Amino acid sequence: MSEPALLDARDVRKLYGDFCALDGVSLSIDAGQFVSIIGPNGAGKSTLINVLTGGLTPSGGHVRFKGRDIGGIGPVALTRLGMARSFQLVQIFPDLTVLETLQAAVVSRRGHGLRLFASLRHDRQTHAEALEVAALFGLADRAHRRARELPQGDKKLLDVASAFALRPEIILLDEPTSGVSTADKHAVMEILVGAARQIGLRAIIQVEHDMDIVFGYSDRIVALHQGRVLADTTPAGIRADALVVDTVIGRKR
Amino acid sequence: MRGRLVLALVLAGLIALPLVLSPYRVLLMLPFMAYGVILLGLNLLFGYTGLVSFGHALFVGIGAYAAATLTSHAGVRSLEVILLVAAVVGALAAALVGALCVRYVKIYFGMLTLAFGMVFYTFLLKFYRVTGGDEGMPVLRPLLLGLNLDGMSKTAFLVGPYYYYCLGVLVLAAAVMWRIVHSPFGLCLRTIRDNPTKAEALGVSVTRYRWYAFVISAVFAAVGGALLGPPTGNVDPTLAYWTHSGNLVFMVLLGGFASFFGPVLGAFVFIFLQDTVMSVVPYWRLVFGAILAAIVIFAPGGLMGFLGRPRPS
């Protein structure tokens, strides 16, 4: 091993009282990967995301991002280190416009949040960067619409776009296509993958239920079951694994 | 463009007012301008950060008592120095109170600010050797820009130089607050108002920014509070009482917290309405209660909402 993994979880355990949500999960993610985490409800996916994004401190084991322990460091510090996330339930700023939402992310990334007397309107670079991201996500023509007025699919895109506007090295997407109509799911994913390439994202982790999306876009799939890693391999490897197909994916495949 | 025109007309009107209105009406404008400054600050918390403080009179009281203490006990009568000291003391008090309050949101934040307000009110009431108790403290006529105007009659001083001084402070306060809400910092506050979870995910430290907003709003409250003293020549503990905090929240709702100038309009309408209603019926609070209920139910956007001005963005 020449270079340490971008994101490295080792023997992560998470207990809620007596209940063991994660039971020794190890997961190492390198640059250039698109990893999907799958598993039935209660498998520990949400807990794993929260541990990987520094929202929860593991009860045992550790999570390192670029060699640094990030257990429980919280979202603000995590963003600064270069990791961003989006949410399963769409998170937007209802009264902010699309442009303002993206500007907020750019302001945060550039560390300009404490500029009390600077004019945001005259900050050309922040404006340009925000518009650039809006264009990547096909939201440029709606830049001055308030987030609350957007259709559900656009809200979802905006949530993800604002995370991308932080220009993170790694992004964690919690069900990026939930709430998006089946017809639009692939369009959303195409936009997302295209944007990731443009922005120079080094890795994507997603939790996703839609197996078309999972198999269509990931180059690695991690199957969780009862707090353990059941399988961690390529999409083809998962398809060939009868146990995973039975417990996680269901009979259909 | 239309907004700028309205603003210029209003400002011209305010400048011309002492020339056309009776001194009595001009005197009513003095608390309006002081409250205008206070509410610009309160709305940074309320309208832009999404925190409702029920204890903001605490900082108004601090500013008012700073003016009284400086003029009566310390021999400092320069109003510029008084405003500066009020701002600094207000900021220090808010830094402490805010550090405890901003960890909480919604009703818990409101109740904590209320509690601190009551503590300060009781201090003013009970430590009468320092504060004069319920009789309060006199505020001597301040020097304006170093000018001693003791030779003028009280009314002439108030409707002339003092009026324009307060107007100047209000315009300056509005300009500073305008810059703040339209800055990157102001945008961060609005992300917190709309969705704290998402704000944190974008790297905005919610409690830290809430604290900054709290301190800034307290500075405006203290400066406005210091301007309230000279017209009456006296400050008393009711300035820091919780009903006064309630009045401030009422003014914000009356004018509309979703607009930059809404709360200032609210202060104006409140003061003139109070004066009119009080002269007609003794139970003005009953009338005001009905008005407040009507606003919350029928016009949650306040008077500015009626005028059709959208939230500044």
Can you tell me about this structure?
The complex is a heterodimer of chains A (253) and B (313). Chain A has 253 residues and is an alpha/beta fold. Chain A folds into two domains: 1-72 and 219-253, P-loop containing nucleotide triphosphate hydrolases (Rossmann fold, 3-Layer(aba) Sandwich); 82-209, Rossmann fold, CATH 3.40.50.300. Helix content of chain A is 37%, strand content 24%. Chain A is built from nine helices and ten strands. Chain A has helices at 45-52, 75-81, 98-110, 124-136, 152-164, 182-199, 211-217, 235-240, 242-249, and strands at 7-16, 19-29, 33-38, 60-65, 68-69, 83-86, 170-174, 203-207, 220-225, 228-233. A six-stranded mixed beta sheet of chain A has the order 6-7-8-3-9-10, sandwiched between helices. A four-stranded antiparallel beta sheet of chain A has the order 2-1-4-5, with helices on one face. The longest helix of chain A is centred in the last third of the chain and has 18 residues, at 182-199. Chain A starts with 6 loop residues before the first strand and ends with a helix. Chain B has a domain at 26-241. The two termini of chain B are 15 Å apart. The model of chain B is unreliable at 309-313 (pLDDT under 50). In chain B, α2 (23-48) packs parallel to α7. A two-stranded antiparallel sheet of chain B has the order 1-2. Chain B is mainly α and 313 residues long. Chains A and B meet through α2, β6, α3 and α5 of A and α7, α8 and α9 of B.
